[in-house]
Structures are given as C-alpha cells and as structure tokens.
Amino acid sequence: MRKTLITLWEYLRAFILIYACLYAGIGIASLLPIVIPGSIIGMLILFVLLALQIMPSKWVFPGCYVLIRYMALLFVPIGVGVMQYYDVLRAQFGPVVVSCIISTLVVLVVVSWSSQLVHGERKVIGHDEAEKHD
Q1: pLDDT at 99 over 60
Q2: Tell me, what's the pLDDT at 77?
Q3: Three-state secondary structure along the chain?
Q4: Percent of the chain scoring above 90 in pLDDT
Q5: Looking at per-residue confidence, does 129 or 23 come out higher?
Q6: What's the domain range around 29?
C-alpha cells in the first residue's frame, strides 16, 4: 500500500510541476506584447529549471515518460481535425507540398550552417605539425 501511494505521489508531483510550468508560460505569454504561445514559454521555463538543476529531473520523469509513451495517441484528434478539411487540402495540394519541401530545405540549410558555426573546424593534435615537416 505504501509503495502504491509513493508511486501515485510521484506521478501527481510530476504532472503538477509540468502543468505549473505550462500555466506560468500562459500567464507570461498574456503579458507579452508579442504573440508567443504560452506552451512554448512554459516548455522553456521547464527546460531552464531542469538545466540549472533548480528542479531535479526525477521529479518530472514519471509524467514525461507517460506523455512520451502515449504521444502517438495524442496526435489522433489532430489527424481527425485535419481530415475535416480534406477538400481544402486536395484543392491546395500543390502549394502545400511545395511549401513543405522549401521549408524543409531551409531548415536543413540553417541547421547545418549554425552547426558549422558553433562547432567549427576542430584541430587534430599532431596533424598540423606533420604537414610542416613534409
């Protein structure tokens, strides 16, 4: 019985902390003059709390594990909602496909460029010295 209560408390604590970050993000988003989704701000708050180790990761792990495990199930309502607009999507199939391809290519280029900028060219120890002697 005690183990069941501890497990229940761990799940409850995890979901309370996740939702607290979500609602804090929604509150901050309502105060900002620019439009940023509150869920994104809440996720950033949760990330900062975990990265700075203000909040131990073991406190939110049970809730995150459940959400990730059943993530595919959470996309079913969105898929059904998209299918309500089948006629619109069929009529605009070309522009949708072109915008998906272009946005994918833009993301690939930006990520590769920023990765190269951040990581740069790494020096190999002894590599430059071998070229000088040749």
Answers
A1: yes
A2: 87
A3: CHHHHHHHHHHHHHHHHHHHHHHHHHHHHHHCCCCCCHHHHHHHHHHHHHHCCCCCHHHHHHHHHHHHHCHHHHCHHHHHHHHCCHHHHHHCHHHHHHHHHHHHHHHHHHHHHHHHHHHCCCCCCCHHHHHHHC
A4: 64
A5: 23
A6: 1-74
Q: How many domains does the chain have?
A: 2
Question: Is there a contact between 38 and 21 (Cβ–Cβ < 8 Å)?
Answer: no
Please report whether residue 30 resides in a domain. Answer: yes
Rounded distance between C-alpha atoms, residue 104 and residue 108, angstroms: 6
Residue 129 maps to a domain: no
pLDDT digits 0-9 by tens, 32-43: 999 999 999 999
